[in-house]
Amino acid sequence: MHGENGKRKQFDRDFKISAVKMITEDGRKGTEVARSLGIHQTQLYRWKRQFGDQGQKAFPGKGHLTELAMLKRKLRDVEMERDILKKAVGIFSKPTENGLVS
After folding, report:
1. What global pTM score does this model have?
2. CB distance 19 to 39 below 8 Å
3. I need a surface site. Which of 46, 49, 55, 71 has the fewest CB within 10 A?
C-alpha cells in the first residue's frame, strides 16, 4: 500500500496484531476491518496468515531478524571466513625457491 508521497506505508507490529485480532477474536469481517483501517483486504489476510504461522514471533520489524535469517547470515559469514583461510593456507604452503615450504 502506498501513501500520498508514493512511498510504501509502514505499519508497526502492534497495529498488525490488533488488526488480525479484530478478525480472529472480535469476529469482524475482513472487508469491514480492512476498510475501517484504510488497508487492502489482501494485506490484512497476509498478516493473519503470518500471525497464524508464526504466532508472537510474527512481524519482527526492522533490525529484528527472524531465527532463519540470523542463521543464514551466520552461515554466510562462516563460509566467507573458511574461504579466506583456504586462500591463506594456499599462499603460505607454496614451495620457495629452495624447495622448502614456507
Report:
1. 0.55
2. yes
3. 55
